[in-house]
Design goal:
heterodimer; A: mainly alpha; ABC transporter involved in vitamin B12 uptake, BtuC; B: alpha/beta; Rossmann fold; six-stranded mixed β-sheet; four-stranded antiparallel β-sheet; 9 helices
Chain lengths: 326, 269
């Protein structure tokens, strides 16, 4: 399914490219000379330089955001937890905008992801602080705190954009709506490494995530240092989110939606929910990207619009399901 | 369950307040519970029952004093080591994240696992099956928690605690929200577990029937500790709960039974 989606994602676009050519190019790149080149240089460039990195980035962003959502849902015991709704994405965007428009790339290519991570962690701490300050640990109130903080941070981010050079702002605004179009081979290594390390860590903590769903105090009687564990999961979540935001802008609702779908498929054990979320998240974002690229072809619609639309509807459905007490 | 033994519980000079300078919710409390005894914790709402329990299952760190299980101070040990000896059944309602009954009971093995990963050994499986059997949950082990009744959920949480193979089991109002039959079943189970047990209970007559010892607290202070018939005297209960308590004997079973009336009912004040 993942492979099929990936092939289609590379094949479909303003210039349709046959599936055979897609895999021909890929195999030839991996081991040169294996297949006779029957395609033009420009097609090869489209497949290998533009669409393939873009599809890989879509997969990583989808997998990462879905795993973050799944983990946050466990440690907050909140089925509505999502890096976007909790303001973590906005924090990441704020950090990235600050780096892109104002501070400059003072430590090279790593500046944007690093600043995005710092922004994401900052937003996380603010949301946790606000929810504690307002005594809002219940499920719906944590989300409200997240949305409130998210609005404030986005307002600040917009001030940054407003203050910046008008020529640069167009790119930033476009990027903020969610776009995978900037993917390049040279940069994919950063989100890949972060995703690999963080998902390995989360998988090791699968039992702890399961335990957190039965309650803070009960989890602590199982020997889990609850406060420290929750903070660690939030920081890891901010790390993934920050890096993904830096490369793809704000893509909302993936982290909310995917884990719920996965639980329906494989049950609630995090040893299965996490890999399941990664897989379904990757497939979902590939399709969202295909949709975004084809619906207004040859224009690229920002993918955040697609996930926002699907996710918003899903959110409404989730709320109504909770109300009926299922 | 495998070979389990009961632990002794020693509470010395134990007090707790949320912050420095904040109101003390539990004043210096002392008692010693022999291995295998069942202690009932009773008192009016807000008396500090939950606070004391939280200190016993190492959720709160004592402001003064110590809690010792088999002579070991809980805070001198790692949380995971304590969790191998002390288990708790609380009133927290687990969120429904589609975990099955079997998976929740399996969580009880968490503190006994070494290193990483969630793989379950054959001994773990035996212990989990035993716990499911004991609580009569085998038919339900693939059901999601959200689809169970309140009584069934409570049994799941007890089974999870038993899968921890504790030697001290702490329960917070285990009969709350249960119908009479399930109340009796839970209490019967508690009675017959070869563990040291501390449980808070609202119903004084149930407490008197089930517990070897009773600790009566009021406003964070111990009013009495000892066998129920001695601690739950008419005078002590009347004073602690601000009611008129009368000890009567049930005509059929000849068992002592407390009845309660409001103080100013029928009087002018």
């Amino acid at each position: 399914m993942l492979v099929v989606s990936l092939s289609l994602a590379v094949s479909v676009g303003a210039v349709p490219i046959p599936l055979g050519t897609v895999w021909g190019v890929v195999l030839n790149k991996l081991s040169p000379g294996i297949i006779e080149e029957t395609w033009s240089r420009s097609r090869e460039a489209i497949v290998w330089e533009i669409r393939f990195p873009r599809a890989l980035l879509a997969m990583m962003v989808g997998a990462g955001l879905a795993m973050v959502g799944a983990s946050l849902q466990a440690v907050t015991r909140n089925p509505l937890a999502d890096p976007h709704l909790l303001g973590i994405s906005s924090g990441g965007a704020f950090g990235a905008i600050l780096a892109l428009l104002h501070t400059g790339l003072f430590i090279g290519l790593l500046t944007v992801p690093l600043m995005a991570f710092v922004g994401a962690v900052g937003a996380t701490l603010i949301v946790l602080g606000v929810s504690r300050f307002a005594d809002a640990t219940s499920a719906d109130r944590l989300v409200l705190a997240g949305v409130a903080v998210s609005f404030i941070i986005m307002a600040c981010a917009n001030v940054l954009i407003f203050l910046a050079d008008p020529k640069a702002t167009h790119i930033v605004v476009f990027w903020m709506l969610g776009g995978l179009g900037l993917a390049q081979w040279g940069q994919l290594i950063y989100p890949f490494m972060i995703l690999l390390m963080c998902s390995a860590w989360l998988m090791m903590k699968a039992t702890g995530l399961n335990a957190m769903t039965i309650g803070d105090e009960s989890a602590s009687t199982l020997g889990i240092p609850v406060a420290r564990f929750r903070l660690a999961v939030f920081v890891v979540g901010a790390l993934i989110t920050g890096v993904m935001v830096a490369f793809s802008g704000i893509i909302g609702f993936v982290g909310l939606m995917v884990p719920h779908v996965v639980r329906m498929l494989v049950g609630g054990d995090y040893a299965r929910v996490l890999p399941g979320s990664a897989l379904i998240g990757a497939i979902f974002l590939l399709w969202a990207d295909i949709t975004a690229r084809t619906i207004m072809a040859p224009e690229d619609m920002p993918i955040g619009i697609v996930t926002g639309l699907v996710g918003g509807v899903f959110f409404v459905w989730l709320l109504s399901r909770r109300k009926s007490g299922v | 369950m495998g070979v389990v033994s009961a632990a002794t519980l020693t509470v010395q000079d134990l007090s707790w307040s949320p912050r420095r300078g904040a109101k003390t919710l539990l004043h210096a409390t002392n008692f010693e519970l022999e291995a295998g005894r069942v202690l009932g914790l009773v008192g009016p709402n807000g008396a500090g029952k939950t606070t004391l329990l939280r200190l016993l299952y190492r959720f709160h760190r004592p402001t003064t004093g110590t809690v010792r299980v088999d002579g070991e101070d809980l805070w001198a040990l790692h949380a995971r080591v304590v969790a191998q000896t002390v288990a708790a059944v609380l009133q927290e309602q687990p969120s429904d994240f589609a975990l099955t009954v079997g998976e929740i009971v399996a969580l009880g093995r968490t503190p006994h696992r070494r290193g990483f990963g969630g793989n379950t050994g054959s001994r773990d499986k035996d212990i989990i099956n035993d716990a499911l059997d004991r609580l009569d949950l085998h038919g339900l082990s693939d059901r999601h928690l959200g689809t169970l009744s309140g009584g069934e959920r409570q049994r799941v949480m007890v089974a999870r605690a038993l899968a921890q193979e504790p030697r001290l089991l702490i329960l917070d109002e285990p009969t709350n929200h249960l119908d009479i039959r399930h109340q009796l079943e839970v209490l019967d189970l508690i009675r017959n577990l070869p563990l040291t047990i501390v449980t808070s209970l609202h119903d004084l007559n149930l407490a008197a029937g089930v517990c070897d010892d009773v600790l009566l607290i009021q406003a964070g202070r111990t009013v009495g500790f000892g066998p129920p018939e001695r601690v739950l005297s008419e005078a002590a209960v009347s004073d602690a709960f601000q009611v008129i308590a009368q000890r009567e004997q049930l005509s059929h079973s000849q068992v002592d039974h407390l009845t309660f009336h409001l103080q100013n009912k029928g009087t002018t004040s």
